[in-house]
Amino acid sequence: MQDEINEKVVALSIKTGKLSAEVLQKSMKFFLAQLKKQADKRQMPHGKQTLKHLMKQNAGVSNIEITKDNIKAFEGTAKKYNIDFSLKKVKGEQTRYLVFFKSRDTDALTAAFKEFSAKKLSKEKKPSIRKALAVFREKAKQLNAGREQTKKKKRGIDR
Prior knowledge:
The protein is 57% helix and 12% strand. A hairpin with a 5-residue loop joins strand 2 and strand 3 (96-102). It is mainly α. The chain folds into 2 domains: 2-42; 51-141, Alpha-Beta Plaits (2-Layer Sandwich), CATH 3.30.70. The radius of gyration is 34 Å and the shape is elongated. Strands 1-3-2 form a 3-stranded antiparallel β-sheet. Helix 4 packs across helix 5.
């Protein structure tokens, strides 16, 4: 690869010896654009991607099922563990989602799901502040309903 680039640079420099500065500038911009395109092609995508891109990476693909409610939370955990994955919606009786991932990421995915499920369970165990607040509002209404409203006015001259 390096030899090809060196040969192209040498050939370009020989050809441009007779060219004007403007043509040289155009040719160099074109050459640099081609190098950038080649570099972009070599980079593999990471994180959430299409199933087609995941399959192109020549790694075995496995899948698991996930519910619609947990997709966003899972994406954050997968990003933390650098898991390349793809979501696929399966239509049928019930809408299901499949998470496809590389087979070599199985260990990382297992760790990610353990953390994800632990986080989900801890959220479920915590009492909802809104629910507790609603209960206390009802109790306060009951207490206030039992009170009598009395208005006392004293008229007269106090000495």
